[in-house]
């Protein structure tokens, strides 16, 4: 089918209330655009940690973020899927012909115990269109070597104020 994807699942515990995933697109080593903004409300209510103990709180939530791209109806485009336990978003197909060139992927990087970060956000995965090898295995070097780089990132928030401040700063930076 020609569909490719990058992203991962991870665990989030209270006091986090919500999260935000997005894809940063770099072209010829420079930031180009941000696509696929995905706000994710967390749902901790499914499984109490200790039934009958109202002080115990709730079990962590499993968050999944996946960026998929490939052909549909003769066009190349992308979908972003974001979900937390049983909640999810209905994805839209957005055309972006440049994604046809992406041929190298790095996935599940957040499974590394060090929980890698990319510019103050959790790094979920990355994909690249490359014609030359990067100087090292770092994401920053891969971006510099890539014609196009997709960097899937995530941030969790403990309050609505924190979420608003982060989004405002992100809009100024990217």
Count structural domains: 1
Structural class: mainly beta
Number of strands: 11
Distance between the termini: 32 Å
Unreliable sequence segments: none
Order of helices and strands: EEEEEEEEEEHEH
- Main sheet record: 6 strands, antiparallel
Broad shape: globular
Q: What percentage of the residues does DSSP assign to strands (E)?
A: over 45%
Mean pLDDT across every amino acid position? 84
Radius of gyration: 17 Å
Q: How many helices in DSSP terms?
A: 2
Q: How much helical structure, as a percent, in the residues?
A: 10-25%
Question: What this model shows, in words?
Answer:
With 174 residues, the chain is mainly β. It has one domain (4-173). Helix content is 12%, strand content 48%. The chain has 2 helices and 11 strands. The protein has helices at residues 139-145, 160-173; strands spanning 4-12, 18-27, 30-41, 61-72, 75-84, 87-88, 94-95, 104-106, 117-118, 121-130, 146-157. Strands 2, 3, 8, 9, 10 and 11 form a 6-stranded antiparallel sheet that branches. A hairpin with a 2-residue loop joins β9 (117-118) and β10. The longest helix has 14 residues, at 160-173. It is globular and about 60 Å long. The model has no long low-confidence stretch (mean pLDDT 84).
